[in-house]
Every structure is written in structure tokens, then in C-alpha cells.
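Complex record, two chains
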Amino acid sequence: MSQAATAAVAVEGRNLVKAFGQGNAAVRALDDVSVTIAKGEFFTLLGPSGCGKTTLLRLIAGFESPTSGEILLDGRDITALPPNRRPVNTVFQSYALFPHLTVAQNVAFGLQMLGKPKAEVSATVERMLALVKLEAFAARRTSQLSGGQQQRVALARALAPAPQVLLLDEPLSALDLKLRKEMQTELKRLQTETGITFVFVTHDQEEALTMSDRVAVMSAGQILQTGTPRQIYTRPANRFVASFIGETNFLTARISGGAAHLAGGVIPLPAGTADTASATLAIRPEHLRLAPPGTPGALTATVAHSVYFGTDSHLHLRLADGAELVARQQTSADGAAGPEPGAEVGVMIAEGAVQVLQE
Amino acid sequence: MTRTAEQQQKAATTRRNWALSAPALLVLALFASGPLLIVLVYSFLRPGSYSGVEWEFTTEAWQGIFLTRDIFDGTLGWADAHLSIFWRSVKLSLTTTILTFAFGFPTAWFIATRPARARAFWLFLITIPFWTNLLIRTFAINEVIRNEGLMNTVLIKLGVIAEPIRVIYTDTAVLIGMTYVYLPLMVLPLFAAIDRFDMKLLEAGYDLYASRWQVLRRVVLPIVKPGIVAGSILVFVPSLGAYVTPRVLGGGKNMMIGNFIELQFGQGRNWPLGSALAMLLLLIVMVALLVYVRAATKGAPQGGH
């Protein structure tokens, strides 16, 4: 699970601050961010737009320099190095392929700039094009390619010089859903095959969960939580992470005697939970189960409405004090409809599903 | 039966097409081909004694461009004076093109990378000189660079130089004037090309281990080449035929083709020679353009997006 603790460090950011603008108008795109990315890891920076994830990526690439803090690559301080002297390559959101060059010339560019001998350049280009399955397109202009093919060229171009770290700035955002799914698998395959450390920026939580070894969730210039996809999904550190990743019910409750008291009943909590007058509970919709009203241990709620999704339906429930929560019910084999709006139901909560969040 | 009806229809269509094109053709005949044709015909006539031409076919004017008859022994020799004027014109025009590019590229880059509103302002500044008479602007340059002009006065007052630097009435003066006059013609097409340039490509090049200079040479210049070609043509062609600038800043001696042609219609009273020179200038421009465009479009990307 935690490769990062044992494996060597590829990239390390120490107390990175990046401020744009001056004086009082200055905006901190990054506010004292420290991050450690292990070698060979698929590391994802996840967050809404404007959270600073792209800024962090640009700092690692060298396109921006930090206001303060330092960046280490393989233990070496590279904070002052320009992008062309960092063994790091970028796959841009818009691909930024050279329109005046062919596919093969695009892929060869970095190797030529490094002064590699001709034979080595053409051999590597061939290998890279095979890796992204574009051998047949070597002589094409990039403008003659589809979005997915351009994406592959961008990948091959960035991988060709064998960088220590590959930076990917929302590379899949311009593709349609089907192609995006394909490229997700493809990216993961490339990362495994090349063994290169990938730092991937996205605002798509599903992308982050399915591809990453570890994810850093960012908001407002800070990293809120770093962990494996499983960790951040099942044990979100705070309300932001819980709501940004997946869907979550937030309920306000009074905690006393190791149990949460709310309008519809009492939920037992893990032993040792401290008493508070008001705490926020996070419960995933898939961990709620409907039961006949009055079942022991079930909360009492009223069905507000339900939305049918095919594989499951979302039941919007209301507690006695008006608090709303959503329960996800798998569609039963006989296709029977769930409870009607207005019906009174019992809500069972799976054991261990309740997270008490720190505010 | 149907065949003839079809033919009639076709003939009617042809007539109508000609009728509709007539105004455009007339304008072209009157203002483009017509005058050129007159010049061509005049170049094969004998000069009149005072001015004008005598209607007698001869190729003397064309020979006179390259050959000259010695006034003492009457032998034919190369017309060195004419050839040196041609050479100076080509040399000055090429240098002007290079200089306008050297100054124009950074200028166009600067404007293209400003925010949209500031851009309009800078473009406006670039076009302002177009609204002023060329002769006035050229005399203004004269005022700056002449011996007792602004430049020399200031430098002498500052003690940088003791004697005025003689720039006026030299090739340098002509170069300064032409570079100034034709700079906007270079900046505007360059701006248009740089404006379309995707600045992300700079980062892509820089990221792929290219130095700043390599990014410029390997990424920027090839992509904005259409702008460079257009700007160079717009500067080179009028430079070659320039008249006012070499006249005012070059004095009488440093003639360019334009001045030499004018001379034939004035003091020289040799209209056929002037006509032949004008046709030759046209030929030079056409050949130069052909060679240049061929060379510049070799290996350029086919089509756009």
C-alpha cells in the first residue's frame, strides 16, 4: 500500500509558496505546500480549478519559480534550473504539438535538443511510436491527427527523452468520454511499462481514483490530504475531501457516550469518540440500507423522492429535523420499485461507515 | 433541336458572363495592362529631340541600359554607372528588408504579447506615420541626421563628438530613411503571424531541452515564416523602386533605380531609356519574388488546421 515510505524519492517540494500579483492584491496560488513523490509512482494532484494543482506542476517543470521554498529532484535542488535543464518533461493540456513538424519530428525534438546521435534518435523515435501505437503515422502532420492520436504523440514526445519524471497537465480533459476511458488504461500501461514517475493533474476524481498509486487532494493552494485512492475515499481527512471525492451525506449530531444523537435516532460510534455538542458525520450513500420502519438500530426517515439510474437508485430521505440524506439502493433482480415518496422508512448504517470529521 | 437550344443557352450564358465581367476587365485594361503596355512600347522607340518619342522601332534603349558609347572614340563599353545604380538599389533594398526584420520582429512580438486593449494602442502607434505625407516624414529624418541637425547638435553639445558625423547624403542615410518608412509594412504581417502563434509551444520547446535561442530558431521562426515572407515582400518591392527617400536623403549622387528612371523623363529627356529601365525593374522584382517565395515555401507545412 504505502510504497512511498519505502521507495526512493523522485520529487520533493519543500514549503512551496507561489504568490501572483503584488502587495495586498497578491494571491497565493500555493500556500506552504510540501509534497514527496516516490520513484516509479503514479501520483495525482486532484482538486477543483484554481486550487493550485497546475501551479505546483509548473513549478516542478520550471515554467514558474516559487516565491519561496525549494524543489528537489532525486535529492538534488533544482529550484533555480530553467525547464530545459531539468530532466522532466510535460504533457500539456492542449498537447502543444509543433505544427510545422511531422509526428516523428515532434517525437525526435527533445532527443535532438539533447544532442543525441542520429541513429539513436531514429531508433528511440521508432520505439516510442510503437509504444503509443502510432508507427503508421510517423510522416503525418500533427494537424491531420484526431484528438486521441495527438494525445499519443504528445505522450511519445514527452517520454522519448526518458525523463526522470513525466508531468501530465489534465491531458485527458479534451477527449470524449469513451476515448478518455481508453487513454486512462493506456496511461497506466505506459507508466507500468516505462517505470517513469508520473505526476498527473486532474479535477476528475474518478480519473484520480482509478489510475493513481497515491492522490493529493488540493484546495485553495494547500494539500488537504495525501494517500492511496482507498485511503482518501474511505477515510477523508475533512469535509472538503469527503465532498469532493464521491458523494457524501453530512449530518450534524451531538456526540455523547460513544454514540451520535440525531433527529431520527442514535448511531453507535467507535469506542473512544470524544463527546461534543455538535459534530459533523460523513456517511457514503452506498453504506445506507433501507429497513422496515421501527427496526432496532435504524434511523427513522421519510422518503422525499427517488432518482432511478439503472444499476441503482438514489433515495433522498428526510429526518425529523429536516436534515437530508441520500441512500443508494441497488436495483433488485426482479426490478421492483422502491418505496414511494412520503413513505416512512428505517435507515440502517453499515458498521464503521460513519466518519466523524474535524471541522 | 434540343442541341441547338442548348447551344443557344450556352452562348447566352457566355455573353452574360462577359457582360458582367466587362467593368472589371475595363478597369484592369485601363489602369493595369494599358499603362504597362504603353511603357513597353515606348521602350522600343527612339527618343524625341526635346522629350517624348519618335515612332520608329529600335532596341537602342534596351542596349543603352547595359552598354554605353564612348563619347570620344565611339566604341561600345559596359555602362558601369547604370549597373552600379542597379547594384546599389538591390543592395540597399535587401539591407532595408533585413533591418526592418531585425527591428520589426521584436516590435511585432512585443505588440502580439500585450493584452488585447494595449495591443490596439500599439498597433495604432505603428500605423500613425501612414497618415502623414511621406515627403514630410523624409524631411523630418533629414532634419534629425543632417550635419547641423538634431543628432549632431546634441552629440556635440554633450561633448561626445567634436565634428558632426556626416550621415546625410550617404547610403547610410538612405538606409535609415527606408528602414523607417517601411518598418510598419514589416511589423503588420509579422504581428498577424505572431498573434496566431500558440505561446504554449514556447513552453513545449523549452521543456524539451531547447535553449531560448533554439526555441526561437527551431519553433518560432519556422511557424511565423508566412509572416516573414509577406513582410519581406512588402518591404523589398517598394524599396527597390523607392524614389522620395533616396532623393531627399541620398542627395543627387546616391541614386537608386527610381531616381534614375525619373531622370530619364526629366533632364535626361530619354523616355525610351526610362521605359526600358522601368520594365527591367518590373522584371527584377518578379524574378526576385519567384526565387524568394520558392525558397521560403520549401518544406513549409501543408495546409492549416
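Note: The beta strands of chain B are 46-47, 53-54, 67-69, 76-78.
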